[in-house]
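Page header: ASSEMBLY MODEL / two components / 764 residues total.
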Amino acid sequence: MSSPSHDTATLRSEERRAGGVHSGRLGRAAQYIIAAAGVSIVILACAPFAGFLGYHSIGLVLLAGITSLSLFLEIGPVIFAALLSAVGWDFFFIPPIYDISQHGVEEIIILIMYFCVAGAMGTLTSRVRREDRARRRAQESANALLSLTRDLSHAVSTDDVVHMTVHNMEAYFGAKAAVCLLREGEGGELMQHAGGTFSLTEAEMAAARRACGSGQFIVKEQENDEAAAYLPILGPRRPLGVIALRRAHRHASFPLDSPLIEAFAKQIAVAMERESLTERQKKSGLIEESERLFKTLFSSLSHEVRTPLSTIIGASDNLNEPFIASDEFLRGETVREIQGAAARLNRVLGNLLDMSRLEAGFLRPNFEWCDMSDIVTGCVRTVRDELAGHPVELDLPGNGPLVRVDSVLMEQVVRNLLINAAMYTPPGTKITVRARPLDTRYVIEVEDAGPGIPEGARSKVFEKFFRLPNARAGGTGLGLSICKGVIEAHDGIISLEAGAAGGARFVIAVPLTDRKLPTIDDEA
Amino acid sequence: MKRPQTVLIIDDEEGIRSFLEIAFRAGGFDVVHAATAGEGMVQFAARQPAAVILDLGLPDEDGKDILNRIRCVSAVPVVILSVRSSEQEIIECLDAGADDYIVKPFRPGELLARLRNVLRRRMSTEIPRTYAIGRLSIDLSARTIRKGSEPVRLTAKEFQLLVLFLENLGKVLTHKYILRRIRGPEMASDVEYLRVFIRSLRKKLEDDPSDPQLFVTESGIGYRLVLPEGKGTPEDSAVP
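Prediction written out in full:
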């Protein structure tokens, strides 16, 4: 991409952009100097042969020189070179040498013909070259636009669109870009997006606001580090924002003020509009979903919170009754009721907090190497009270691999499954917990010998607030969806199968990182 | 008659202070309480309590800062009250010198038991050299351990770990603390090593290694050596 034509084009555009008179002459002057130098070199090179070559042959050599100059000079300098070489030919080679005026008719005709041929050839070559360049630039613009469109079509968020914009601006215009987006709504503020490669100053922000307000592309002469151009992104209904550009280097494929940049802006506007619509749609979907959740939450909670609360209020009132207070058995029963209700309330609130942490995305596992057997036995110990009457059988490896999990969260999952099994099966039903490595996963199964869960409902049990139609009171319908959330945060899977005895079998599988157990390096 | 020991309760929740006061007075302690960190520090200086119960969620100051301020002037036992899911904070407090922690909601009886344990540990200036824990009899001076009548052979590092647990009987030890003591400060984050280490210790010392009763895991925080209920304590454990 660094053909001479290319450099010249950049040079010219640079002149135009800068608009300065001096730099304009310099480029053109350089071309004339090159033309003069080229002709002089060819004449000097031919000089030693002047003695034994006829001036006709030397004329052809000079003609070849002009042709080669026309390959990289503009028309003006080429004609100038043709004129110069005609004069030089006449002066140095056509006898009488070192004399311009004393020629016969033939020499004059040859000289004029020479100039015409040189001029025409140079002009034609130059024109062909210019057309070729125009065609190539059109091709490049098309390619640039195609690349941008392709990038933008892969964007899945406004952030992506900004990223692609910045990237393409750098690639094709050699410019650092900062993107400001206009907030929606009345009196929306123009806010700079974090994805740009520089941050705008107050003055630059003001210019960006002007560009956004007027919808006009503003190109400024670059001073110091100021942004050189402000390109408004105009959506079909409203301006969406502004791209501020700072020239980063001179070797760009396109000048900042080429028509291509407007096409870029249009493509970017389309992509932004698309993303903003998608985001809005997603948001309204979320609002709908959260409204539904809110309703379910309220109907479920008012029941789940009020029931244990009424027990606590009622039972503590009872404690004030002299009749109950004086009877040791009744008092003990009442206190146990209060304790039971408080534990239930605590569980409901714990579930709610966990759920909201999961929903809000605050739940980030604190991964550590853990001994799964240890986690399971820890759980069984902490839920001993809730498991009352349910025998628990453990089938755990004594020397299994360590697994990278969050032990606190993992314990919570197993605990939820154990409490679930104890709550929804008849008293005395056996619960079995098995743990073992299986291929690339570590699997924990919590199985009960209860009535099981009908096949149609198995995939639904992990949904928020789902409760089996005949489920007994005391659950929030959140426990299993919390388990699912936690296991998914571990890149694991949780599923429900039918157990061997027809009961429910919950299976958790988390990835097992292949790693040897550390050896303890000491002597007995 | 022995004067009752004073316990300072720093908690902003009126209800918790009042039920703890009832429980502690019933347990034979004298109680002072404070609702804020500032008030707590004033009470601490004025009453010189024998132990402090410190809530982490105070309105005016971070619990850890108060702990540090107490630790600057005194080695008094401190038990932390905390809510679930603040394991990191609990670990920081334990590493900063807290003696124990308990997670809300809790039973006052449990807190009282923890407090007594901490006080007992603090009072015994000398670490006993012999222990009888469940079926285990341990003689640190002779470096012999028996499980029932069977002798148990521990490696040097395992013995070192056991001594660390015995020195802190009933106290939760954070992963970092154990690793720093056993392997040195540069290995303090190698939890993996600790898991395997504990596993081998359990295998040698527990009756049922898959259901440990002595070396109990405190999820996300550390380990604790507990005495099986109603079985030997260091005081009455003189093995002939």
